[in-house]
Specification:
- The complex is a heterotrimer of chains A (102), B (404) and C (118).
- With 404 residues, chain B is mainly alpha-helical.
- Chain B contains 18 helices and no strands.
- In chain B, helix 2 runs antiparallel to helix 9, helix 3 packs parallel to helix 10 and helix 4 runs antiparallel to helix 15.
- Chain B is globular, with a radius of gyration of 20 Å.
- In chain C, the strands form two sheets. In chain C, strands 2-1-7-6 form a four-stranded mixed β-sheet, with no helix packed on it. In chain C, strands 3-4-5 form a three-stranded antiparallel β-sheet.
- With 118 residues, chain C is α+β, with helices and mostly antiparallel strands.
- The chains are: A mainly beta (102), B mainly alpha (404), C alpha+beta (118).
- Chains in contact: A-B, A-C, B-C.
- Chains B and C meet through helix 4, helix 5 and helix 14 of B and strand 2 and helix 4 of C.
Chain lengths: 102, 404, 118
Amino acid sequence: MHPSEIHVEQILGRRVHDAENRVVGRLEELCVEVVDGEYVVTEFLIGPEAVLERIGGFLIQLPLFNLIRVHRRDHRVPWKLMDFADPHTPRIRVRRDELPRP
Amino acid sequence: MKKVLQITLGIVTSVGGFLEIGSITTAAQAGASFGYQLVWAIVVGTICIAFLVEMAGRFAAVSKRTIPDAMRERFGINFFAVPLVVMFAVSLLVLAAEMGGIAAALEMATGISLPVWAIPVGLVAWGLLWRATFSVIENGVSFLGLVTIAFAVGAARLHPDYGAVLRGMAPTLPRSNATHYWFVAVSVLGASISPYLYYFYSSGAIEEKWDVTYLAANRLIAGIGMSFGGFLSVAVLVLAAILFHPRGVDVQHYQQLPGLLTPIFGRAGFWLVIASLGVACLGATLEIALAIAYLIAQGLGWNWGEDLEPRDDARFALTYTLLVAAAALFVLAGVDPLELTQISMSLTAASLPVGVFPFLILMNDKKYLGGHTNGYAGNAVVLVISLLAAVLGVVSIPLEIVGG
Amino acid sequence: MHLVAEVLDEQIVDNKGRRAGRVDGIVLELRDGKPPRVAYIEVGPITLLARFNRRLARWYARWDERFGEGRGVPFRIPWTRVTRDRDACRLDMDADATPIFALEDWLRRHIVEHLPGA
């Protein structure tokens, strides 16, 4: 039993877990393409989970600070691997190390 | 030719609109307590606001958005709520201080006590916002604000030691009373670098339909307008430094302010200070009320515009109405405008990064500005000064409170 | 197209060129074996408040019911009626035909018009 619709603004920023319940990150963006005349979500972007990393992610956009090179551990998850059975805890259907490399 | 006229008008309104109760009282307090030592604080603050105003104008002209528009879009409502709430709260206090400034001027002119003026002042301010168009407010009141040039004339008449004034532009450490020194420095910075000023400016640029052809005009208006305005603040400081400092007089009550010009112009000096205070604070009242209403309306996507009739933007119009009413309550309650000014200026400084940091991110975002993103200098100046103001604010405010 | 960066929180402009709120929410339709479809955008305080606190949103929704028929629920616009351009999301309908201006109209009729010089 899964919901037939989800709200983007509600799932934004939520922690995403993998098939073994480990944290992958937080949902940050949804990529949309036109397929057969319909706008569909093709990929979900998952960003860092840790608070410090997220604050750092904000500060790094400031001028002068953005000279610091930072490696962001983002994940691009194809729509097939996302599971929204519980909209409050989105999951990916595989283990996080099985995801395509960022 | 039209552009030249517009530039001149822009500069005049920037100068006329620069002084308000914050800059007048903090400059007077700085001069009275520390002579020329804090001129650097006015200079640093003025440089920062000049850069911020230029950035705000450039942002609006190129991206065709106001700052709150872009902040909501770029950062989302959950993040935007933070600067929205902080700036709303701090600006409301400043608004109350400015309305208190008008009331104080009227009290000194008529002898009728301050709280009585709360409602008349509120009604006049509201009436102007309700009926007048943007250009009438922006230009009309700012033109009247040119009366504040009296402070510069007065200061020149005293033949100050210009060398000493110039030396005051270099930051120095306090010789005594360090806590109070930094507290006054912070309130001077907060008075100069008012977020409502550059937020209002970006909305104004959209109201006046600026585009890329206005970028040079924008630089001139921001640079020259803010510089002359800062120069007027220094004039107030010089007056206090010469007239109050040697006698060890601190500025504690607004009734002392006429003393800045009466020794030079006699009775006329009294009326010049009253007029300056009243008009300058009226201009600031209108700007701040609009700036907060713009912030809310744009952040929530409402229809807005001072050139629209209130019937066409009911939520926007009622927002500034409620703001003026809320600020008037402070005056009605008899809150001392000078104390409220000190508190609100310091809070402004301490909370600067909340508004400035997201704005700096926007100013470096090519999606909004294309090839017109910030230069290295602008970024560095604004980042360093706003951080400095915040650090000083966060440290010195509690110390001053504890010190009594 | 990126939903969060380019659609969510964008200004909406109706077919008369008026500012008509912002994209406060986006609804995706989930389908078995097919990618999620962008179905609706949502506009209004109920959706906006729900992004902070569910209870606050429900409290506002109950107050909103008083404005008339079909109120008290988030307002949805089919994605097909929306076009994204550089500056805003363009709606191909008149916002007066929607509840978007309901509060605005109510305030105008009951307060603003009674004040002199509106």
